[in-house]
Amino acid sequence: MSDLYCVFGNPIAHSKSPAIHAAFAATSGQDLIYEARLAAVDGFPQAISEFIAAGGKGANVTVPFKEEAFRLATRLSARAARAGAVNTLAFNGDEIVGDNTDGAGLVRDITHNLGFSLAGKRVLLLGAGGASRGVIAPLLAEKPASLFIANRSADKAVFLAEAFSDIATVDAGNFAKTAGKSFDLLINATSASLSGENLPLPPGVFASGSLAYDMMYGKGETPFLAQAREQGAARRADGLGMLVEQAAEAFFIWRGVRPDTMPVLAELRAKRAP
Ligand code: ATR
Description:
Elements: E1 3-9, H1 17-28, E2 32-38, H2 44-53, E3 56-61, H3 66-72, E4 75-76, H4 78-83, E5 88-92, E6 95-99, H5 102-113, E7 122-126, H6 130-140, E8 146-150, H7 154-163, E9 171-173, E10 183-188, E11 206-214, H8 223-230, E12 235-237, H9 240-255, H10 262-272
Parallel strand pairs: 1-2, 1-3, 4-6, 7-8, 7-10, 8-9, 10-11, 11-12
Antiparallel strand pairs: 3-5, 5-6
Helix pairs in contact: 1-9, 5-6, 5-9
The structure holds 2'-monophosphoadenosine-5'-diphosphate.
Residues 127-132, 151-153, 156, 189-192, 195, 197, 199 line the site of 2'-monophosphoadenosine-5'-diphosphate (ATR).
């Protein structure tokens, strides 16, 4: 019988993860089934127990369950402990092992797929919620020249910067505090675009040749990337590559095989082309 995996979220109907993992399995010759399952907002632990009882070997976890998955895990990888959130679970006997592949996926997309080295770069991370927290340690591991976390409420950015101060000195503040500074890489980890709002980015934050990266993705240009274009960002990328790369990292955790991500990403991009 094929090994069983799935992604849990709410909502989950439009998840691309089943198609991504099916493509990985096909190209790497792995025999597995990967489903999308809706968990009730208050029913995540029960959904996990039922899935384990049905023989599930591992699961991805998406909004809004990543912090709950973190609490449910009986063992955490170092990067999941740092992130305070879990997006990948592996079920080994009685153990529920929690990992977080989001940061690795982001870094891989930027450095490998986009060919943008983070070493020595000035990085601005926008947002100080869970999405932001999950990627800070992997970003710092690439040894950027500096990292600034900007957030609507400055105190949350300052709190996050302090939480990672053992790794590197991280600057933090509200958006206005970035005035007069320029950055080589700006990453949007806010959910501002859901409310259709532009971020109050001072003029000049996009250095010449800079890359604007939106962890969100959608059918067309995201609001943040439209704003980045208007404010002069030389290069722009949305989070579709991060989605595929975090999935590849989860696939590797479960199967010990690193799938080829490029054809999968190319197909997803082709599918949504107008
Ligand atoms: P996630 O897990 O996606 O990070 P979250 O923890 O709710 O979700 O965090 C959402 C982030 O988007 C926060 O940084 C939030 O800023 P605040 O901490 O000030 O609330 C940011 N955000 C949401 N809407 C925004 C908007 N309209 N303008 C600027 N930032 C916004």
